[in-house]
Amino acid sequence: MTKLSFGAHPHLLGFEQLERLVERTAKTAAEGYPPFNIEAVSENEYRITLAVAGFREDDLGITVENRQLVVRGRQAEDESERLFLHRGIAARAFQRSFVLAEGVEVARAGLEHGLLHIELRRAMPDVVVQTIPIDRR
After folding, report:
1. CB-based contact 19:4 (threshold 8 Å)
2. pTM, whole model, 2 decimals?
3. Residue 16 is inside which H or E element, if any?
């Protein structure tokens, strides 16, 4: 029996990467740290907020790689000789990924009160309807 993929369907022209995006999204959904929110600020604007308490701006990195927003965090090693009786605050490195739709771009990012806010916006195309001329052959 042959498996029919999204990209092989005859009515989905140009969607060859859809199945790969779905698989990549499913893998990143299993991550649990750090916790995050995703908000729709307006019809074409979104905000991702990650709880990154204890991380400084220098400890965080935000990149967009192949339509995938990647947020990385790594704290500097604690050189002090503290003796913890209980250590419940996570101080581990993390990588959190979000797949961005075509036309969605990162507008800005900011760190406030232990929350990393990443503002996204959908670029509106200039042409909504495009008329294609027919050439004579």
Report:
1. no
2. 0.71
3. none
| Residue of 134, 54, 69, 74 lying closest to 107 (CA atoms) | 69
**What does the block give as tokens for 34?**
């750090």
Q: Is the pLDDT of residue 102 over 70?
A: yes
What is the separation of C-alpha 1 from the centre of its chain, rounded to a whole number of angstroms? 35
Residue 5, both tokens: 């993929």
Q: What is the DSSP letter of 58?
A: G
d(CA 88, CA 54): 13
Q: How many CB atoms lie within 10 A of CB 48?
A: 20
33-79+87-122 CATH choice from 2.40.50.140, 2.40.400.10, 2.60.40.1180, 2.60.40.790: 2.60.40.790
The dihedral through the CA atoms of 101, 102, 103, 106 has a sign that is: positive
Average pLDDT over residues 51-80: 90
